[in-house]
Records
---
Amino acid sequence: MQDDTEIIASYGHPERWFVKASRKRAGRELAITALHWEVGLAIAAVPLTALLAYEFLGLMLSVAFPHTHG
C-alpha cells in the first residue's frame, strides 16, 4: 500500500496545482471585487442622477418663471 507522499508524487507536481488554483482564485476574487465596485457605483448613480435632474428642473423653472419666487 502506498503512503500519501508516494500517491502525491505519482500524480506529478502538486505544487503546480496549488499555484494554478491560487492564481485562478485570485483572478476570481479580483473579478468579484470589480463586480462589487460596478454594483456600488450603479446603486450610487441612481440617486445622484435623480438629484441632479431635480436640481436641473428647479433651475429651469426658476429661469422660466422668475417672478414666482419670493
---
Amino acid sequence: MARQHESDSCLLSVILVLWKWMNSDASCAQNALARAKLSQRERGILRECCRAARDAVDCAREALCVCCDVIGGELPVGTMAGVRGMLARGCRPRSLKLRLGGGHNDPAASAALGSSILAQITAVPSLSVAELSLAGLPLTAQVVRALAAAAPTPRKLCLRSYDLSHCAGLPGTLPSESAPSGVLGLLRHAAPHLRRLELSPLKVPVGASLAALESALQQCSRLESLTLLLRDSNDRPVSWLPDTSAMCGLLKLDIPYSQLLPSHLQQLAALTALTQLRIGKVQVAVSAAAAGGTAVPGPAGPAGLPLLPLPPRLRTLGMDKKIDAAVLAALQLSACLTRLELPGVMLRDDTAYGGGHLQPAAAELLLVACRQLSGRYHRSTRPRAEYLQFPFAVPRQPFRVDLGLASPPPSWRGTYGPLFAALRPAALKQLSLSCAALNVLEVDALVGHLPRLQVLELPNGLELAALPFLHRLTRLRKLCVGLGGVVGTGLVEAWGNEAALKCALLVLCREAPSLESVTLDVCEWVESTDTLDDALAWLDVMLTDLKGPHPVVEVE
C-alpha cells in the first residue's frame, strides 16, 4: 500500500511539470528548450513517474508476448533483458505467446532463447502459465520440459505452423523418425488439463498414419474448444475427423476444409454440449458410398434420402464449401440453430439436368434446401489467415446458387420464380446465380422476392430486355453480368444490337437509385467487344451530363 501511495503521489506531481508544455504555444524547438530548463527536482519527479507507470503496467499485465527473429545464431540480448526486467517488476503473466520469426530462424538459437525465457518464468515463485501460444519455437526435448515446468496445468495450447514430419516440429530440425515428436510430447503433457486446443495449421507427412495424434487427442477429456487444420507436406488440406467420443464437454469444433461422410455426422451428433461447428463440406450419399462410407440408418428425408443428424444444442453451423442441395435438405436443423454460414448451394447430381431442364425431383429438393435457410442464413465469415494456403486476403463472396445452365422445370411455368420465393425468407443481400439466362418474367420475380439485394452476379447473363427492370432493386449497388451464357442462343442478336444495348444500359444507370458499378464480362464472346466499347463510350458521355454521381460501367 505504501508503494502504491508513493506511485500515486508521483503521478499527481508530474501533472505540474506537464502543465508547462500543455499551456505552451511555443514551437518544437522552444519546447525542447523548456524541457532543458527543468529543475533537477522536476526531472527526478518525471523519471520516478515513468518508473511508477512502467511498474503499474507490468504488474497488471496478464499476457507476455515475445515476438522476434533469431538469425545467425545470436540471441537477442535485449529481448531476454526485457523479459527479466518485467518479471522483476512484478509481471505475473497467465498467458505466454512466443512468436519467433517467420520460418527463417536458427533452430538451435531459437530453442536456446525459448529455454532461457521459460527458465526465467519458472524461477518466479508461485507463477504458473495457463495459456501457451507458440510459433517458430523448436519443440526439442529440453524445450518441452521447460514448457511443462512453466505451465504444469495449461488450459489453452495454440500451435501455429508446426510439422509432425520433424521431431522438433519445424523445418531444419531432425526428421521425426530419429526422435520422438516434440509436438506430440507437449500435447500429451497438456492433454489432461486443456480446455482449448488450436493446431492450425499442422503439417503431416503424406500418407502417414495419424494414430499417434488421435491417441493424444483422446486424452483431452476436458476440452471445450478444438481447432484442427491439417495439411500434408505438399501444403494440401487433409480431411480428418478425430475420435471425439471422450470430449463430452466440447462446445466448439472447428475443422475447416474437412470432408465429412454421413457417418461422421452421426458421430458428431453424440456431442450433446456442442454449440458451434465449422467444417469443409458433407459428401452426398452417392459420393460417400464411393469413398467407402456407409449409409446411416434413420428416418428418410426429402427424395427418400436419410436424414442427417446434428448435435442437439448446436447454434452455429458453418461450411467452407458450397453445399449440395440434397445434403442441405436432409440436415436435421433444430430450433436452437440460428446461424447457418454457407458460401452457397448447388445441384451436384448430373441427372438433375435432363434435357436442359431441372428434373422435377431435383427442383423440389432445391426448394426444400433453400427453405432451410429461413431465419438462419448468415454470410460466411472471412477465413482466418492461418487457414489460407496463400497469405493474401480473400474477399467475401456472395451466396452462390449453382445450377449450371439448367432451365426451370415445366412445373415452374418456365420461370425461376418458385426458387426466388423459397430464398425470400433468407433475406439475401448478395447473390450469385448460375442458371440459364434470365428472362423478363424471372427478373420481375427476382425483384419482387429479393428486394434487399445489394450485389447481384449473373454469370450466365439475362435477356437484354430484362436488364432495365433491375433498376427496381432499390438497394442494388453492384451488378455483374456474364455474357458467355448467351453465346449460341437467340439472345446474341439483342446483345449485339448497339442501339438496344445503349438504351437498356442508360435506363438502368439513370433509374437505379443506389447502383455504383456494372460489370459486363464478355467471357468467350470476343466478337461483342467492339459493340460494347462503343456503347460504353456513348453511355459515359450521357451519364456525365447527369447531376450527381453515376454508376461506373466496365467491360472485362
---
Amino acid sequence: MNKLQQAAAKLGLALLDFVYPPHCLACGAALRAARENLCVGCWEEILDQPGPRCRLCSCPLDVEGTDCTNCSSWEPEFERALVLGPFAGAMQQAVHALKFMQQQALGMELGRRLGQRPDFVADLQQIDLLIPVPLHPARQRERGYNQSLCIARGLAEATGLPLENNLLVRRLATRQQAKLDARARRDNLLAAFRVVGAVPAHTCIGVVDDVLTTGATFNACARVLQRAGACRIWALALASPFHQPIDQAVNLRNRAGWA
C-alpha cells in the first residue's frame, strides 16, 4: 500500500467514525476511534482488581491466607483457576458482546489482558499448552466462531504459550448450560468431550473458557485430558460470579441470556 492509499484509508476510517461514532460495548460511552471496543473507564473497572486472591479459584480475599468461601464447596478436577475478574458490570457486558455481538477482536484483547495480569504472569509460565473449550460443530456454525478460541489466541499471543485447537472436541450437542442447575450441569456434560490425537506426556494444560461458574465444563474437559495423559489441568477464564452460591450464579447467567 503506497502513501496515497494509506492516506485514503485513514480518511475513510475518519469519515466512518464521524458518520457512525463508535461506542463502548460495555457502557455505551463515546470512543475515540472505531478500532477501540471498550472505553478507558470500563477497562479500568475490568483490570483494577487489587488485593490478595484465592490460590485455587482467584476469588478476591479480604485477608491473604484466609479460607475462601467461594470455592470451599467445590470438587474441582483441575488444579487451580486463573480468572481475570468478577462476572459483573463492565466485564459481564464485555463477555456478552464477545458471545452475542460478533466481537472476536474484543475476545482476543481480553485474552491478552488475562495473560498480562501482573500476578498471573509467573504462574502462567507453568503451563505447557493452551486448549480452548470447544463448541459442538452445529453450535459453532450457528455462532460463526468459538469465543473461547478468541480468548485463547489473545492469551497465547501475550504469553508465548503454544495453542492447540484440534486436540479436544465436543462430540455431543449438549443442552445449554445456562438453563441448568449445578447438578444438571454436571450430568449434561458427561461424555460431552473427547480427545483426538496424542496428548503430550507430563504436560500442564491450560483450558480456556469465557466464564467459570460451577466448574462443570472445566471438570469435564479435565477428566478426558487427564485420561489421555495430561498430568495437570488449569482453568483459565475471563470471569466468575465470585462469592455467590452456585444456584444463584447459574441464575445470574440465565438472566444474562447465556448460551
---
Amino acid sequence: MEGQKRTPVIIDTDPGVDDAIAILLALASPEIEILAIIVCFGNTDVHSAWLSRPSYTYSAYALLNAVWNNSSNIYKLYQAVGRQIAAHPEDKEKFPNYTPDVPPILALGPDGPLEGSRHFARYFHGRWVTYLEGGLVYTDEFCRDGLGGITERHPELNVWSVDKADGFKANFVPTTKSGVEVALALLNTWPKRSITYVALGPLTNLASLNREHHQTVNDRIGRVIIMGGALDVPGNTSPVAEFNFLADPYAAKGLLCPVVQGQGLPLERVLLVTLDVTRSHKLPFTFYIQHVDPDFDSTTNPSVATEKSPVSHFTSSFLERTREVLLDLGQDTMELHDVVAMWCAIDNPPEAFAKEHNLPSLSPGWAAAKRKFDIERTGELTRGMMVVDRRDESVHGPGVIRSQWQPFLEETYQCHGSLESTVIPAQLEAEMESEGVPSGPDGCMGHQTDHGGSIGGLVDVACVIKTPGEDALVRLLVKRVWGVDTQ
C-alpha cells in the first residue's frame, strides 16, 4: 500500500511441515509485519500445535518413562531461530520479524470444523503408534506433534514449561483470547483494508470471524490469501479434495460461495492459491542436501545438532520423516503449498482501491484468473471437493484432449470466459428451492439439505495461476531461511 512499507499480516495456521517452513520465511521477510499467529486444528490438534503437551495413553510400565513436557511447534520454531541468532549474531538482521518492536499475538483457534467430523493430516505430518500389551490395545500419541514426531525423536528441540513464561517475551505474546477475538481487534485497530489475512490451514477461524462480524470483515479486511482447494488437478487428502477444504468444507463454502449471496468474503480482495499452482513448486531433497544440509538423511540416521546450524537442524529433524513418507509415494521432493501462499502475501500487499468484479492487481510475475465453482460439504467420497461445472461443450477446444485444454488456456491467459469453469451452468429447479430452509449467518444450510450446496450459486473467485516460478521461490526460500545464496 502507498505510504506503508510493510504489510501487516495475520497468519492462520495448523503448524505442520510446510506451515513451519512458511512461517520461517515470514520471520525472514522484511516486506511484512506479523500481527498475530492463530493456531487451528488440521495437521494436528490445536493443543499439540500450540501450548499444551500431548496426552498419552500408556501402560503402567510405559508411563514411568513418559515424563514429557512437550511444547508447540510455534515455540520450537522460534527457539530454533533464537539458537541460530545466539550462535551467529550476524543473522539477527536476516530474521526481522523474530524480535519486532511489537511482538505478535499467539492465539488459539478452533479445535474442529464448523460442522461434521474432524480430520487430521497425521498420515503426512505425524503418526499414531498402536501396540498390544497384556491383551489391551494402547495408542501412544507422542507422534501427534504435526512435525513427524520430532517431540519424541528429537527431545533437544522440545521447549520446557519453565522456559515458556519468560523465554519468548520478545518474540510473541500468548493470549487466552480466541482467534476470532484477536483478529477482530486487529481489524478494528489497524487502518482500514491494510491487513492481509493469510490462511494456511482449515478456514474455520476465518469463517467464524465472518459469521460473527461479517460487516467488519467486509469493511476492514485488506486482502485474504487462502491456500486451499483443487480445481483441475486431483486432491491430496482424497482423490478430489485438498486437505484444508476437506477439513472444514462448511467454512470454505461459507466464505467463498455462500448459499446467500453477499454473506461470504469480499471476493475482490481474495486470492485463492490452489493445488493447481502449488504442486509445481517443489523443494527437491537432493537440492536441500546439496545446499542446506549435506548430512540430511532419514529417521534411521537422524540429524545431529552439533554438526549444523540450529535452523538447519530444526528443519532437517522434521523433514527426515517427511522424506520417508514421500519416498514411499515415489518422490524425493516436497511440494511447497503453504510456502507459495506466504510468498504470495509477501509479494502482493492489499490494494487501496480494490473494485468488485475486478481481478486483483498483482506484482510482476504473478497472475490470477476468475474461476467458478462450488464446494461439496457432505459427500461420502467428495467432501471438500471444488465442484466445477464441465457440462457445456462450448468451453472445450474442438478435438482437444480435455485434460490438456485447461493448462493451455491458463498459459495463454485466456482467463475471461474461456476457462471451462467460468460458464454459468443450467440451473436445476431443485437447486433453487431454498425457501423455507434454515441457513446459518453465512448462508450455509448445514444439515438441512441432502447435498453439499447449490451449483446454481457459482461465483467468481480469483485463483492464482502464475507465479514468478519454482526456481525463484526456492532461491528466495533457501537464501532467507537458511542463508544460502544459490544464484
